[in-house]
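Hello,

Our lab assistant flagged a job as stuck in the queue for most of the afternoon. It eventually completed. Since we weren't sure the result was trustworthy after the delay, we are filing this so someone can double-check. Below is the sequence as submitted and the structure that was eventually returned. Let us know if re-running is recommended.
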Amino acid sequence: MVAVPNSDREPAFSLPVRVYYEDTDSGGVVYYANYLKFMERARTELLRSLGFEQDELRLREGVLFAVQRAEIEYLRPALFNELLRVTVDLCNTGGASLVFEQEVRREPDSTVCCRGWIKVACLNEKTLRPHRIPAKLLAEIANVL
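-- returned structure --
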């Protein structure tokens, strides 16, 4: 993946996230792995906003999505009780994969706390082998992102 920061344009999708005590270490700083959880939630909510539920995709299309690769930059700490905004932008599409650029920003000043490039693979639910992304889903994602 190419680690090139997002331009100054507005992100295609964003999700507000409050930092809870359970998200932090003993010093009140967001534990590093939890940024990945915040990013996963934002991608899930993006799909939901487009009318696609992951459990329904499994049942109707026979596909699952799994993170194949994650490249993360930790830039500034996020702290207990802060409001964050997790953004999602599409960087690249393949027949069976999508690459997203995501940022976790502190509100209201938009300080970037964490930036990541996440490659998600579409898999056949039975074989767990790569599977083409359903055309309707790919068209909706490409239209928005």
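-- support follow-up --
The delay was a queue issue, not a problem with the job. The result is valid. Residues 13-144 form a domain with the Thiol Ester Dehydrase; Chain A fold (CATH 3.10.129.10). Helices lie at 34-49, 54-61, 135-144.
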